[in-house]
Amino acid sequence: MGDHGAPENRGGRGSGEIPLPGGGVLRTPAETEHDFGSTEVRFADVVQPFWLMALVALGVVPHPDSGQPQIDLARAREAIAVLELLRAKTSGHLDDAEQRLLDQALYELRMNYLGAQDRSGGA
Questions:
Q1: To 10 degrees, the CA torsion angle through 6, 7, 13, 15?
Q2: Half-sphere exposure of residue 38, counting CA atoms within 13 Å on the CB side?
């Protein structure tokens, strides 16, 4: 530890690493920026988690913990609402493929929501 309780830079001047008490290493921002910049994020990477979450909540895809279909209409509504918000906020800024993906996800989820609502006796 340094004089004021801060981790001491024992990695050498300019090494970019500061050992932390209890283990681990703190890397300087210049070193971590490279790690984050190497991954390309696509629009589908934003849509698909909410699409899948809704499909699981609608019982279309088995729940990962039980392996059985489970219906949770409230969770499905939340995921659909996020995708609707995403569509509203990105209106006019998506290319054709991105727009089709989002429209397809919302259409499929709404149709499955109605089916799940009927199967569960409403909500």
A1: -140
A2: 5
| 62 and 99 co-located in one domain | yes
pLDDT-based confidence at 3, cuts 50/70/90? very low
Helix, strand, coil share of the chain (percent; to 5): 55, 5, 40
What gap in Å lies between CA 51 and CA 79, rounded to an integer?
7
Instruction: List pLDDT tens digits, range 59-117.
Output: 999 898 998 999 999 999 999 999 999 999 999 999 999 999 999 999 999 999 999 99
Amino acid 52 reads L
* pTM of this structure: 0.67
In the chain, how many domains are there?
Answer: 2
Residue 61 CB burial class (10 angstroms; 0-12, 13-18, ≥19): middle
